[in-house]
Every structure is written in structure tokens, then in C-alpha cells.
Amino acid sequence: MPDPYLPKEHHFSHRTGWLRAAVLGANDGIVSTASLVIGVASADASPSAILVAGMAGLVAGAMSMAAGEFVSVSSQSDTEKADLEIERKALQKFPEEELEELTQIYIERGVEPATAQAVATQLTRHDALSAHARDEIGITEIATARPIQAAWSSAASFSTGAALPLAAAALAPEALVTPVVAVVSLISLAILGWLSASAGGAGKTRAVVRVVFWGAAAMVVTGLIGAAFGTVV
After folding, report:
1. Which residues lie below 8 Å from residue 38, measured CB to CB, with a gap of 6+?
2. CA distances from 74 to 12, 78, 125, 131, 159 (A)
3. What is the pLDDT of residues 215-227, one digit of tens each?
4. Is-above-0.85 flag for pTM?
5. How do the domains of the chain map onto residue ranges?
């Protein structure tokens, strides 16, 4: 019986599926929309043109993120299904060989041969395919590809991120669109970095510096391009 006074460990790996897509979407939404707005504003565009460009970037970006995540994660899911089918056929045709293979996996991990044999036998009786999927192929329930979840997470997070610089552009005085959007976007990126690091159990300072640096770089480059060419891009 487990000791109720022992501290319970808290892990973060179960969040990787949605966290990666959500952080990528929000970061891309903030950076791409802010950069687009700053680039257009730097080209002396009208306020309405700036907002239209920003809104178009939001819609196009959200759809692109959803489609890209769905296609890429679906490819991963197809590969996982193909591997599982190969393993299912192998278990049907060569059960003894597969049992020995599972035993060797546990032995290589440091388990005594007799114990490894007993564990492999029991797991095979319980659910042979799951045991091989987890310990031979590396497919687990936590890491299993979920295309729909990834697509929705990316689209929703992109839209949320993109709405921040777009709202800043809509509310800022015409003469201050660029600095207001830049400040709001950099603050948003810093908060995103902090939240993503907290959710994933990672170092917060590095995460914040990383997203703010690349976001600022993108805004500077697009601002310079807009100013240099003087056209709406």
C-alpha cells in the first residue's frame, strides 16, 4: 500500500501535445501580425489599410496554422498506425520471437533476465500490442499524434495572439501605431514565454528572452522593409 505521506511527483510531459501547438500558434500570431502591421504602417499606409492588412493576416494565418498542423500531425499519426499494424502482424505470425524481443529490451535496460522474462510474459498476456508499442516503438498514449487537437489549438492560439497587436493598432493614435504595436506585442511575447515555461516546467528567463528577441527582430526587419520601399506589403 503506497505511503500517503510520500510527496507526489508532478510531471509535465502529458501537456506536450497541446502545449507545443498552442505556444507555436500564439507566438506566430503575435509576431506575424505585429510585423505585418508595423511593416504596413511604416509604408505610410492609411489606418484602414493597416487594419485590413492585420485582419487578413489574422484570418489567413489561423487557417494556415490549422491546415499545417493537421497535415503534419496526420502524417505522424499515419506513420504510427503503420508501425502498429506491422507490430500486430508480427505478433500474430511470430509470437515467440516477439516475446523474446520484448524480454531483451528489458534486459538491456538493466532488468535481470529472469525478471525480464516474467515481465514480458505478463505484459504480453495483458496487452501484447500496447507493450511493444510502448517499449519497442516508443508510442505512448501521451505522445500519440492527435491531428484535430493540434489543428484547433494552433488556430485558436494564433487568433488569440494575433488579436493583441491588431487591437493595439486599432486603438493607438495614428501617429503612434508602430511604437504602440511594438510595445504591446513585446509585452505579450514576454507573458507568453513566461506562461509556456510555467506550463512546461522549464526555465522562465530563457523562454522570455528567446521569444522577445526573435519577435523584436522580426518587427525591426519588416519595419525597415516597409520604410525602405514605401509600399503596402
Report:
1. 177, 178, 181, 182, 219, 222, 223, 226
2. 23, 6, 31, 23, 22
3. 899 999 998 888 8
4. no
5. 13-229
